[in-house]
Design a protein that fits this description.
With 140 residues, this protein is mainly α. It is built from 6 helices and 3 strands, in the order βββαααααα.
Length: 140
């Protein structure tokens, strides 16, 4: 379960990949995306995705094909977050806490210089469109 409060997200230990509770600071664009999600009928209560594993996998596959994405690496979003966050904020210790990793060395090896600060600024500036014509609703 994820608990959203204003500018932070709490990940409960029993839902965390590393089985540790953690607190993730939300960027301005993340808050904007969550607001757009809620305006379009999304909820902040309960599971983020209400599909079963099989249905979710099928929908992701069809969406990936429709978007002409030929390959989607495992944990791509997690790795992107860590790389762009570190390039922007340069605080590896805080990133270790937010990501749930156990080692600064691991973070350094995988994410240091994973992208440039200029690219990170572009990433953190991605905002939701003003219209919902290209937004997929994530409900059952």
């Amino acid at each position: 379960m994820y608990i959203y409060r204003s500018e932070a997200l709490t990940v409960r230990a029993d839902y965390s990949k590393t089985k540790r509770k953690r607190f993730i600071d939300l960027s301005g664009n993340t808050i904007a995306w969550l607001g757009a999600y809620r305006q379009r009928g999304g909820t902040y209560e309960g599971p983020i995705v209400t599909y079963g594993k099989h249905t979710l996998s099928k929908r992701r596959h069809h969406n990936r094909i429709a978007a002409r994405v030929t390959r989607w690496p495992n944990s791509a979003m997690r790795h992107s977050y860590c790389s762009y966050w570190l390039a922007m904020h340069k605080d590896i210790n805080k990133l270790v806490l937010q990501s749930g990793h156990t080692s600064v060395d691991t973070m350094w090896r995988h994410y240091h210089r994973g992208t440039t600060e200029a690219e990170a600024k572009k990433f953190w500036a991605i905002m939701p469109p003003s219209t919902a014509s290209n937004t997929v609703r994530i409900t059952a």
